[in-house]
């Protein structure tokens, strides 16, 4: 996609420094990274897992590493597959069987942080350790809870993920942990692109557990609650699990009408507590921006939504 600067845009309003920009679209992050290293592209804000161990050394101060607003989840098709995933205890057992520390360190080389809330740590109202035991790796407790509720039918979990975003490695790591810690069989369902798995979930054609993520639209706790877990978000949002809880809905409505930011935040935290108790999704990690750029450009800045401030990028 090729775009060019609008020459009549006022300088005072931030006219772009570059006269044109070309966006290149890749099926594989590795290919994009190789092009960056060869100076065939100048900036990328998506790096493959294979680059994580060496990118800081190779790019130095042209490697950007900072917290961003994304949260990575394992989601459950509660509405379409309640027999397997309808019990909160099943979902909690799966959560406690996941070693978040190992995944973020070993798979992502520290470019993800273990999640302990449904809310990103950069958002006002986030509470460190809010998930309590549900986010703590405890294979013994996980197995005991799993056995107490009978696990899932056929003792098999399917994990779906989009294969175009570097998710194969960490999803397979989760699957191996579940096999080891819960004694369950795990199969994998890669979808070609993220849009494909969203289409399958939206059409209720896929009923396995699935990789999901959320990036903020605006810096509010509400943005991590209503668009993903409310009733209205089933048809007009991103509630791909079909989760419904009337108390959760009521707390969202009360928070919207609160007389102060502080009062609203407390009510959103109560709604968050319901999600922590019921775990319609399992927060696994929060994102760190990992971007890099070549020596041919300067003034590269990436914001909390992982967007490059292209208006201020210049040729070096």
What's the gist of this structure?
With 316 residues, the chain is an alpha+beta fold. It has helices spanning 29-37, 55-59, 82-85, 88-96, 100-107, 139-148, 168-182, 194-202, 226-229, 232-236, 246-256, 261-278, and strands spanning 2-4, 20-22, 43-44, 63-75, 112-114, 156-162, 185-191, 209-214, 281-293, 297-298, 314-315.
Overview of the molecule:
By secondary structure, the protein is an alpha+beta fold. It has 2 domains: 2-66 and 290-315, D-Maltodextrin-Binding Protein, domain 2, CATH 3.40.190.10; 68-217 and 269-288, Dipeptide-binding Protein, domain 3 (Roll), CATH 3.10.105. It is built from 12 helices and 11 strands. The strands form 3 sheets. Strands 3, 4, 5, 6, 7, 8 and 9 form a 7-stranded mixed beta sheet that branches. β6 (156-162), α7 (168-182) and β7 (185-191) form a beta-alpha-beta unit. The longest helix has 18 residues, at 261-278. It is globular and about 65 Å long. The mean pLDDT is 95.
How are the SSEs ordered, and which strands pair?
Layout: E1 2-4, E2 20-22, H1 29-37, E3 43-44, H2 55-59, E4 63-75, H3 82-85, H4 88-96, H5 100-107, E5 112-114, H6 139-148, E6 156-162, H7 168-182, E7 185-191, H8 194-202, E8 209-214, H9 226-229, H10 232-236, H11 246-256, H12 261-278, E9 281-293, E10 297-298, E11 314-315
């Amino acid at each position: 996609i090729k775009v060019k600067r609008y020459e009549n845009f006022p300088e005072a309003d931030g006219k772009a420094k570059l006269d044109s920009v070309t966006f290149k679209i890749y099926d594989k992050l590795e290919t994009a990274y190789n092009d960056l290293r060869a100076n065939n592209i100048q900036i990328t804000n998506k790096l493959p897992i294979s680059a994580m161990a060496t990118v800081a050394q190779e790019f130095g101060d042209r490697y950007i590493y900072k917290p961003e607003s994304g949260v990575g989840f394992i989601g459950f098709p509660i509405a379409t597959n309640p027999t397997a995933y309808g019990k909160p205890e099943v979902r909690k057992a799966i959560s406690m069987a996941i070693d978040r520390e190992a995944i973020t360190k070993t798979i992502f080389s520290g470019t993800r942080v273990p999640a302990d809330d449904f809310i990103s740590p950069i958002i006002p109202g986030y509470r460190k350790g809010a998930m309590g035991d549900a986010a703590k790796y405890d294979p013994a407790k996980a197995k005991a809870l799993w056995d107490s509720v009978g696990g899932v039918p056929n003792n098999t979990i399917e994990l779906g993920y989009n294969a175009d975003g570097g998710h194969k490695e960490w999803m397979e790591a989760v699957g191996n942990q579940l096999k080891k810690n819960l004694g369950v069989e795990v199969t994998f369902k890669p979808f070609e692109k993220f849009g494909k798995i969203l289409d399958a979930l939206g059409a209720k054609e896929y009923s396995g557990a699935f990789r999901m993520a959320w990036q903020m639209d605006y810096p509010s706790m509400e943005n991590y609650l209503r668009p993903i877990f409310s009733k209205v978000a089933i048809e007009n949002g991103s509630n791909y699990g079909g989760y419904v809880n009337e108390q959760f809905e009521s707390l969202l409505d009360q928070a919207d009408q609160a007389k102060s930011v502080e009062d609203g935040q407390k009510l959103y935290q109560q709604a968050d507590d319901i999600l922590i108790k019921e775990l319609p999704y399992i927060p696994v990690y929060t994102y760190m921006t990992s971007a890099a750029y070549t020596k041919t450009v300067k003034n590269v800045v990436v914001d909390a939504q992982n967007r490059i401030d292209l208006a201020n990028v210049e040729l070096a």
